[in-house]
Design goal:
alpha/beta; Rossmann fold; seven-stranded parallel sheet; six-stranded parallel sheet
């Protein structure tokens, strides 16, 4: 297990609780220590804040400007934090909407120190402003990308490919237990599972309607809570009365639901539970999004469907449930992927590799 022997500074706009295990793991790999600079989210974002144990956290004063597609954020105190922590290398979110970033990069470079950008990439379809995005990423000494798609997008803007590292976005460690054993055939009826916040962008309404179209009516378990719960329960009474709304569950409370399921379905965007579902040996159906799912959900372990395509969702579920033996094989591949390739341990390995490369 390689380490970074310098002192690392890492900036984030906010610190979601799901990022804490990764940041603490990365901090344990930094022999000179790791200081984290992050502020508070807007109330409308409903992001649960985290608190690190190994990384030393300093709270930024986030000044949120405008909103929607025009949103900007200025993190007050960035330079003061750099002066106090004096990092040998800095990793920042590669987002041009964060107005203090360029000043921080200049501060580091004026002292002969390196800065790595970390981000999703910039879709080629967004041609407007490509020059601004290109100039923004070229101030960095290396790039960390969430996915292979992000690598291609940064390279398309002229960033040297040999300086781009893929750190597959992960929020979970490699599984610490064997994959649950499942029979080669389904029980009385197959079980579909959704875990996540009940909000419009998750498209759980489409999942209810898709199940209603199945000739073999699957058991549908919906774990989570949120602003759409009452509306979804009302819709379920009309289109799929057998749907089970479990409410919010966390940690060990989720284990029996993952173990009983045959298939994990995320018909909308987001979804931190995908990797956790894979750690229980579940095949996945997920809507295609920002590229972070591309490397996680593949033909051998699941289906990526076009977003907001109810027909594709119905077709993928029918396809999945048509062959129980194949579905079990796909579940085993899910377990292999999160055991060997995509977990916070391998993610930390890539961060250390990128730091040592500069």
């Amino acid at each position: 297990m390689k380490s970074y022997y310098g002192r690392l500074g890492l900036q984030q706009r906010v610190l979601p609780s799901y990022r804490v295990p990764f940041f603490d793991l990365l901090a344990s790999r930094c022999k000179g220590g790791m200081n984290l600079f992050a502020g508070m989210p807007r109330p409308v974002e409903m992001i649960a804040n985290g608190m690190t144990k190994v990384a030393k956290l300093t709270q930024a004063n986030n000044i949120h400007l405008l909103g929607g597609m025009y949103y900007l954020c200025y993190q007050q105190g960035f330079i003061t934090w750099l002066e106090e922590t004096n990092p040998d290398a800095l990793i920042v979110e590669a987002n041009p909407r964060y107005l203090a970033t360029s000043s921080a990069v200049k501060w580091m470079h004026s002292r002969g120190r390196k800065v790595i950008g970390w981000g999703l990439g910039f879709p080629a379809s967004r041609k407007r402003g490509a020059g601004v995005r290109s100039r923004f990423i070229h101030q960095f000494d290396a790039m960390l990308s969430y996915s292979q798609r992000g690598v291609e997008e940064y390279a398309a803007l002229g960033f040297p490919r040999e300086k781009i590292f893929v750190a597959h976005n992960s929020v979970s460690p490699a599984p610490g237990s064997p994959m649950p054993a499942r029979p080669s055939t389904f029980a009385v009826r197959p079980s579909l599972l959704f875990v996540g916040r009940l909000q419009a962008r998750k498209r759980i309404d489409s999942l209810l309607r898709a199940c209603a179209e199945m000739e073999l009516k699957p058991r549908l378990i919906i774990v989570g809570d949120g602003p759409e719960r009452l509306a979804l329960e009302s819709l379920a009474k009309e289109v799929y009365p057998s749907a089970e709304f479990i409410g919010a569950k966390h940690g060990a409370e989720l284990k029996p639901y993952f173990e009983q399921a045959d298939l994990f379905v995320l018909p909308g965007t987001g979804g931190l539970a995908v990797q956790e579902a894979m750690s229980y040996g579940l095949p996945i159906i997920v809507a295609r999004g920002d590229g972070t799912q591309d490397d996680l959900v593949r033909e051998k372990n699941g289906w990526q469907i076009p977003p907001e395509d109810d027909g594709a969702l119905v077709g993928a579920i029918k396809n999945a449930l048509s062959n129980a033996a194949r579905l079990r094989d796909m579940g085993r591949e899910s377990f292999r992927i999160v055991s060997e390739e995509i977990n916070i341990q391998t993610m930390a390995d890539v961060f250390v590799k990128a730091l040592n490369s500069i």
